[in-house]
Amino acid sequence: MKSACETIKSKYTSLYCLSNNAGIMATADEITSDGFDKQMQTNHLSHFLLTKELFPLLLASAKQIGDARIVQHSSLARDMTSNSKLEEPFLKKYEKDGSLGGEDRSGTNDMVMKGPQWERYKHSKLANSVFNHALTDLIKASSDPVVSKILSTSAHPGISQTNLAGHMKGSSKIMSFVSGIVESLFLQSAEDGAMGLLKGMMDAPENIEAGVLYGPKSMTGWAYALPPKPHETDQEAKDMLWKMSEDAIGAKFVIA
Questions:
Q1: Which residue from 182, 150, 146 is spatially nearest to 71, judged by alpha carbons?
Q2: According to the model, what pLDDT value does residue 87 have?
Q3: How far apart are CA 97 and CA 99, in angstroms?
Q4: Which of 5, 53, 72, 170 is deepest in the core (most CB within 10 A)?
């Protein structure tokens, strides 16, 4: 990711929109070469690093044209963590106590979103939303008028027909059968699922509110402004996420 950031900075002097929408879901437990849970590093920590490194380019866009955007791609799963809050162990480096990583599928049930892989996914998606709120707070607190022109939002796609769960379809005949029925009857298109993301990226500034998450009110439908929930705006969670994300990337992310 650091190499990618350097490549982008070598080619561009400004950036209008950073869409942090890379993601994986309920993959087998795996420790990255950096020592973190693969899902948390892919879904949040890499985006924290990307946002920190490319923030000067967003500032340049805000100064040049009066606007810049950052959008985090969260999920309905953000509301499903076991203890209804973002917990520190999921952001830590792997320790040999079973808290992270390892091929442990005990208790996993793909059909009801239970088990260690799902819990890690849920926390990574809650991290996306908490990051959005923490980032919005720091932007609003800045004394720099250019910083205030950067708009941070987040989105969720509901349940959409993408390849996010493709690795699960062949896990069993029952899972493949159920997946087929669910896709045909209940899932909206990938294009419809992208509406919240696109709204944050491209809608007129007067139609967007900083810090807000845009997506369906339930599992499918139009992208609405959704009211934040306590586990997304909790100050302790925001402070913890910011500090642990800085520790993970080995650098401070200061918005003056």
A1: 150
A2: 95
A3: 6
A4: 72
In angstroms, the CA 162 to CA 188 distance is: 10
Write out pLDDT tens, residues 92-113: 998 765 556 444 444 455 546 8
Residue 84, burial from CB neighbour count under 10 angstroms (0-12, 13-18, 19+): exposed
pLDDT for position 6:
95
CA-nearest of 38, 182, 61 to 123 is 38
Q: How many residues does the chain have?
A: 256
Q: How far apart are CA 6 and CA 11, in angstroms?
A: 9
Domain ranges of the chain: 2-249
Under DSSP, the state recorded for 215 is: E
**75-88: pLDDT as tens digits:** 999 999 999 999 99
Task: Give the pLDDT confidence score for residue 185 in this predicted structure.
Answer: 60
36 to each of 27, 223, 251, how far by Cα in Å? 14, 32, 16
Vertex 16 angle, CA 54 and 72, to 5°: 65
Instruction: Please report, as a single letter, which amino acid is at residue 52.
Output: K
Rg over CA atoms, the chain: 18
3-state DSSP of 80-148: CCCCCCCCHHHHCECCCCCCCCCCCCCCCEHHHCECHHHHHHHHHHHHHHHHHHHHHHHHHHCCCCCHH
Cα 55 from Cα 42, distance rounded (Å): 19
Q: Which CATH superfamily does the domain covering 2-249 fall into?
A: NAD(P)-binding Rossmann-like Domain (3.40.50.720)
Name the phi and psi angles at 69, rounded to 5. Answer: -130, 145
Nearest to 231 by CA among 131, 133, 120, 85: 85
Q: State how far Cα 108 lies from the chain centre.
A: 23
The pTM score is: 0.89
